[in-house]
Structures are given as C-alpha cells and as structure tokens.
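Archive entry. Fields below.
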Amino acid sequence: GENVEQHPSTLSVQEGDSAVIKCTYSDSASNYFPWYKQELGKGPQLIIDIRSNVGEKKDQRIAVTLNKTAKHFSLHITETQPEDSAVYFCAASRVLTFGGGTRLMVKP
Amino acid sequence: SQTIHQWPATLVQPVGSPLSLECTVEGTSNPNLYWYRQAAGRGLQLLFYSVGIGQISSEVPQNLSASRPQDRQFILSSKKLLLSDSGFYLCAWSAALPGQPQHFGDGTRLSIL
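PREDICTED_STRUCTURE:
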C-alpha cells in the first residue's frame, strides 16, 4: 500500500517569512495529492491539491509542487500570517493516505 | 452544496459503555464515507471506509465497528469502550471516483473515564 512521510513535524517561522512542508510517497501509481489545514478542535479542511499531470499549482500565498520522478511534493506558504498557524497534512491517492502532519507556528 | 454533519461534538463515556457516533452527508449521492481517529497531537488513522450501503472495509482490527444503513449515513459503534478508544473521531466523504478529495466533518471528541 501507499506510505506517505511528512516533515518537519513542527515548524516555527516569523510572521512574513515563508514556510515549506515536504512529503514523500511510495506508490508510483498515486496521481492525486491534496493538502489539508486543521485548526484546533476542527476537522481538516482542503486548502490546495495537485494532480500528477501538473508540476506546480498556486493559489494566492499557497503553492504546491510535485516531482513525480522523485516521488515528493511540497507545500509552500509565503508571507505567513498568524492565522496560518495550524496543523497541515499532506495526502496521496488512490485511497487517500495521509502524512503524519506538521504543526506550523507563525510568531508575530 | 454538500455538507457533512457529525454528532455529538463532545462525549464523555465510562469504560465498558456502548458507543454510537453518527455522520450524515447532504447534497450528494452515493458518496464514499470514512471514519478516522486522531489521537492528541497525532496524525489521522483510517478506521473504516464504505463505498456503498452495507459495504464496510476495516483498516484496523479493534473493538469498534461501522455500519452504513442508508446511502448518506455512516455510524461508528462499540459494544464496550476501552480507555484506549479516547480520541478525536472524524467522518469524511468523497465522491465515488478515483483521485477525489475527502471532505471532513468537525469531529467528535470522545473521552473515556
């Protein structure tokens, strides 16, 4: 089955800096890679996703890159704000397998 | 638009008592449905998923069970809760196609005393 590794497990950045979270996956047949943001006491919310026919996707301050050859994908958050503080999860298809999560703390 | 409801939001139960958590989805038909557990500060552990009424796949052996009595209703149950069953339980749905995002409810925080 699919195995997804995510790192770092915690990330602390200064407000305005960029944050990068990386994931690797094992199943070369995986073709869908979503990212979720989970705020305290809430369920994870989809923030961006990418499919295997695309190398990069951007939505305002958030971008995701995918390297299918190396089997890794990354979430990039630019100009971080305190409200970006949350736990972020990556996942890979086909039955979604989640990474272990990254706790992002943005210090004002 | 599609919505997913989970209840209750919080639950405190004694060891050995039964459990029933309910999840319903609105605005879509024939969704895939999922139950996850999340221990404090940890990742998401898939417990069960269902691709149709009465069709349940279990990912982890445990004293929990799941049922899908209707197309958009998913129930997580236990006959006798253990201390280790404490956690944050999340229900999710996705469209019944490969490579679709899952959409999560707001979860139930279960504490076993």
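CURATOR_NOTE: The CA atoms of residues 32 and 51 of chain B lie 5 Å apart.
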